[in-house]
């Protein structure tokens, strides 16, 4: 599975190349993005990037689970949820978005 993962350095190089800015500037922007997203999520806000998706927090209730074979309480906590944007879903899965019964163009 490691071959399907892009490293931070590879991401920085790719974004810098695509956007035409230096790798140092790209690194700063990605650090800033991470900080802003984290801060906004801590404040309970939803954060979105058009064309990619959005993050939001959801509350998980306390529940019972097993740890090392023993039943234990897992206390309520916040989880971060990612919602993929429709344009990205369509780009990744074009076969799911083929319109059927298309009327022919005149």
Summary keywords:
single chain; 106 residues; alpha+beta; three-stranded antiparallel β-sheet; two-stranded antiparallel sheet; 3 helices; 5 strands
Q: Gap between N and C termini, in Å?
A: 48 Å
Apparent shape: extended
Domains (count): 2
- Kindly state the percentage of residues in helix: 25-40%
Give average pLDDT, whole number. Answer: 91
Order of helices and strands: HHEEEEEH
> What fraction of the residues are assigned to beta strands by DSSP?
25-35%
Mind describing the biggest β-sheet?
A: 3 strands, antiparallel
Structural class, by secondary structure, is: alpha+beta
Describe it.
By secondary structure, this protein is an alpha+beta fold. Helices cover 37% and strands 27% of the residues. It has two domains: 1-45, no CATH class; 57-98, no CATH class. The chain has a three-stranded antiparallel sheet. The chain has a two-stranded antiparallel ribbon with strand order 3-4.
Question: How does the SSE layout of this entry go?
Answer:
Elements: H1 8-19, H2 23-42, E1 47-49, E2 53-60, E3 63-67, E4 70-74, E5 77-84, H3 86-92
Antiparallel strand pairs: 1-2, 2-5, 3-4
Helix pairs in contact: 1-2
Short description:
By secondary structure, the chain is of the alpha+beta class. Helix content is 37%, strand content 27%. It has three helices and five strands.
């Amino acid at each position: 599975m490691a071959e399907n993962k892009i490293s931070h350095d590879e991401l920085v190089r790719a974004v810098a190349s695509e956007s035409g800015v230096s790798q140092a500037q790209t690194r700063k922007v990605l650090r800033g993005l991470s900080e802003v997203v984290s801060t906004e999520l801590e404040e309970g806000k939803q954060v979105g990037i058009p064309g990619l998706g959005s993050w939001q927090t959801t509350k998980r209730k306390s529940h019972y689970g097993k740890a090392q074979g023993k039943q234990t309480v897992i206390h309520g906590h916040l989880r971060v949820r990612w919602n993929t944007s429709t344009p990205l879903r369509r780009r990744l899965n074009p076969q799911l978005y083929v319109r059927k019964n298309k009327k022919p163009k005149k």
